Amino acid sequence: MRLGLKSSAAPDQMESRLKYRPSVYEFYTSEHDLTKEGLSRLEQGIRRVKDAGIRDIILHHPVFYRGEMLELVAKADCHPQLVDFIDYSTRTLLDLAAKYDIQVLVHGSYEKQTHAFIADYRSLAEATEVLWQRLDIYRDFGKDRIMFENSISPLFCFGDRELEREIFKRGYRLAYDVSHAFIALKGNQEALEDSLAYLKDHIVHYHLVDSKGQEHDSLPLGQGSIDWKRVIPLLNPKATSIYEIDLADMLDPREQLASHAYLQQLFS
């Protein structure tokens, strides 16, 4: 497995990762990175990572804007500023991706606030159709530079075969968070493996993170209930990956490194 690490564009966080010479790097962006000053700092970060010889770089779309999660399903007449920011931030990051030959990751949905956004529609079916339309717009704009990550919510969770068939039909490039799928599938290892195998050719990036399968716990690999010896052979070998693990110290990626060491030992 290649070493994939993640940080913000803060120089001290970046240097704490780069000394381990990862081959994949993901930037966690926030709404502050989309200001004039923030974009300048983010570009400096991208250049620093590229100068370190890393070719596979992903920009993770912001999660929040003024306290609200960036749910693509957000209804424009209920959340006008949020919808405007979603569009501005997605297109701006895609412009950076084109400039630096890198990738952008956008969540198809999240979980914590999703049901409140769905409640703005007459039904889940109507909300789902709006989400497909938004995803199509960004798919067409971003082309081979955008990928969509799975959620735990009913709107964009992998493991739902009807949803996965619709993904096939629409040709989305996917970022597969293994823990999100495991949680959405209520800890069902066999269903997780089935989903990974079914979507394999559409997946371009993985978030490798463990879970007990009950809540969003973001555990180091080997500390949850996922059987990684059965999961890893099902991954698309052409895809990139990072360890998206919660850190006790944002200047010390030891939990990410421990997860990498766990896989190396597992397959040694």
Automatic annotation (TrEMBL):
InterPro entries: Xyl_isomerase-like_sf, Xyl_isomerase-like_TIM-brl. It comes from the Bacteria. One of its GO terms (molecular function) is isomerase activity. Keywords: Isomerase. This is Xylose isomerase-like protein. Residues 170-238 form the Xylose isomerase-like TIM barrel domain. SUPFAM superfamilies: Xylose isomerase-like. It comes from Streptococcus ferus.
